[in-house]
Amino acid sequence: MVHIDPSTLLPSTGCSCRRHGRLLHRHPAVGTVVMVALLLTVITFIWPFQRLANAVQEGFDQDCAGFAQDPVLGDLWPWKPGSKERGVSLASMVPRLALRGKALATYAKQNVQQTKTNLEALFGVVPYGQRETVETTFYQEARAVVLYPNVIATVAHALTPDVVEVHVGRHSTVHTVPLYVTEKTLVAHVTRDDRGMPAQIAHINEPYDLALVQVQAHPMLRPLPYATALSYGTGEPRHPMGGLEAGDCVVAVVSPRDDETHATRTDRLVVGKVLAKVPVATNSMTQTKLNVNMFTTDLAVKPGDSGSPVLALQEGKPVLVGVVSATMLPTAMFTYVSRIDPIVALADALRMHTFAPQR
């Protein structure tokens, strides 16, 4: 331990002092050592607070200006002059997944015309009625986001049919839950006219409504040029730092529709805010369809936009934080987003594996 004489800490007056009969002059090196020691002490106390400040600054932005200034998303900015006329498409980065196949389904024959709706009819249970089991076809679409040239992320419910249509008469159909999927094919489309690229389901996380799909690397598919960000935050799980907060700006890349079902060839940007870090249920019915991996926004999306990428801003730069999972619009201004966090590591591992489509 270095001992410092307290007398050396006194301010210099430029004069000489006598000690024990000797004439002593202050050595300039002593003052330098003292100043360095004091500086190191100050840095030692400031450094932890500076790291804390930096960690807090790693959060997300509430100002949406970064999206308007981005070279890719800026062309989709809804308030940019001429954005609607340009007709920009990000389909190579945000393709559409088409799932088609066959499934076994059952329904109750109704020989007697129902005069009024009752619970038996609602759940397909007819007293003393016979049930018919048939094989029917199904088809459904959803959006997705290219993470790597051979890895695509989407929502889990887009890869499993939850309702199929059964023709029970010449002009009559019923919707019912499929018993078993007997055949299914998944194809990634960039345009309406392309034949599509064969895809394979690599991972499904139903509780968090997330899925990963593998394809062969193709020139038509390009990874979204933005990093993924952990929207939960980082650090201690009980006290994470830098996560999404209410009021943070978010956007979703969706397709305009020329009618209620068909998407156009262009994309648009829907701008909104985070309303809550957790899913906000409006009733018991919606509560059963939500999960802890969701956060709530006011993004004005529509059915068919499931799987669309949702981005936020960190220090003015877009980052991927999730995919559209469900919406309450127009009943309520709630849209639920599945965080991308649980599949980030798995997606990175899958990019090292090549996918060979079955012939």
List keywords for this structure.
Thrombin, subunit H; 6 helices; 359 residues; 7-stranded antiparallel β-sheet; alpha+beta; 17 strands
What does this entry show, briefly?
The protein has helices at 28-57, 65-69, 83-86, 119-122, 284-287, 344-350; strands at residues 17-19, 22-24, 96-108, 131-143, 145-148, 151-154, 164-167, 173-176, 178-189, 197-205, 210-215, 249-254, 268-276, 294-297, 309-314, 317-327, 335-339. With 359 residues, the chain is α+β, with helices and mostly antiparallel strands.
Question: Please, could you describe this protein's structure?
Answer:
The protein has 359 residues and is of the alpha+beta class. It has one domain (83-107, 116-350): Thrombin, subunit H (Beta Barrel). Helices cover 15% and strands 32% of the residues. The chain is built from six helices and 17 strands. It has a seven-stranded antiparallel sheet with strand order 4-3-9-10-11-6-5, with helices on one face. Strand 5 and strand 6 form a beta hairpin. Residues 1-26 and 42-57 have low confidence and may be disordered.
